[in-house]
Amino acid sequence: MLNTEYIDLLKKVLIDFHHAEYVQYKPIYENGGWKVKLAQKVNSFLKRQGLSICWRIEPNLQRRIEGRDWPVYADTMIGLKRMDNIEYCISIIQAERIPGDLIETGVWRGGACIFMRALLKMYNEKDRKVWLADSFEGLPKPDHAKYEKDLGDTHFEQKELAISLEKVKANFIKYGLLDDQVRFLKGWFKDTLPVATIDKLALVRLDGDMYESTMDGLDNLYPKLSKGGFIIIDDWG
Predict the structure, then answer these.
(1) 129: number of Cβ within 10 Å
(2) How far does Cα 80 stand from its chain's mean position?
(3) CA 57, CA 107: separation in Å to the nearest integer?
(4) Which of 66, 103, 110, 218 is deepest in the core (most CB within 10 A)?
């Protein structure tokens, strides 16, 4: 029987819900145009003086619930509703004994997969594995020739998305959930997914942000999805 209080608390800890009541942002940047340029110049000047533009504080709980903000300290940015979605899918997988492992492609700090592993532990599930596929070095530069829909994509410039394998493992350890049921596929999806030693999958969660990354996941993992299993396509488009 699941400890629902533990699961509910874990979800909120992983998304750092308890620190989401307020968000800080610089109102001078809101409307774009000359205000942005002015703000940049003012901020550059203030930085040289060891100061910065004042931040305004606004309520943010709903954005955290929906996964529409970028939390500073959370172990996942997907928000409460999408964590609920993972819990629902795994409850069906367990109840109907749908065969296969669980995988997420694009894991950031690993929080969604930590939650998957915790759920398997609560179900006393010994046979399934949780797979984490990621470069652990950020996103690739878009291949415009092959994937026109990624034209202009700038995810590769966002260094905040480059979370190392060592850091993700450390995050599992702090929850006491790193064991041999957790497996890592380090590298670009186009290289790792075709050769991954995965037989069947019950849950596929694609969170690669780009069209190329999403298609790499679909092409290589959908054929391994068991009948009755779930595929979640997060974000792209």
Answers:
(1) 19
(2) 12
(3) 29
(4) 110
- At 54-112, the pLDDT tens digits run 544 445 788 889 888 888 899 999 999 999 999 999 999 999 999 999 999 999 999 99
Do the Cβ atoms of 133 and 104 come closer than 8 Å? yes
The number of angstroms, rounded, from the C-alpha of 219 to the middle of its chain's C-alpha atoms is 20
- Rounded CA separation 208/201 (Å): 18
DSSP the chain: ---HHHHHHHHHHHTTGGG-SEEEE-GGGTT-THHHHHHHHHHHHHHHTT--PPPEEEE-HHHHHHT-S--SS-S--SHHHHHHHHHHHHHHHHHTT--SEEEEE--TTSHHHHHHHHHHHHTT--S--EEEEE-SS-PPPP-TTT-GGGTT--GGG-GGG---HHHHHHHHHHTT--STTEEEEES-HHHHGGG-----EEEEEE--SSHHHHHHHHHHHGGGEEEEEEEEE-S--
Tokens representing residue 160 in the block: 């905040």
Residue 52 CA to residue 102 CA, distance in Å, equals: 44
- What amino acid is encoded at 35 in this protein? K
